[in-house]
Amino acid sequence: MNKFILHQKTYDYILYLYPLINRLPKNHRLILGRKLEELALELLLSLMRANKARGIERKKLQQKSSDYLDYLQIMVRLAKDTRLISIKQYLANAEKLNEIGNMLSSWMRPNKKE
To answer: Which class for 89: exposed (0-12), middle (13-18), buried (19 or more C-beta within 10 A)?
Structure first.
């Protein structure tokens, strides 16, 4: 698996997320919107760090990336459950995050080449 694809998918997700955050009501944009933004950016940065690391450090960073993804999924679900985003927007988010999650999971599997 090419790790660059994972970075690109995450980057593309962030580009998708920004207009969504900007459409949140101002009081929610400042709290939930900022948290969504921070988590998405941390996910991207941790993936980049993990790609450069090796051995046990890579595994730790991959797990941290997985944690950021989990937190991001929870925040998106919260936005849906509080009706700040539509079901359609939620489904689009969930699809993109699931794709990133599947790619991350396959990258985290033990690899005999490492």
So the answer is: middle
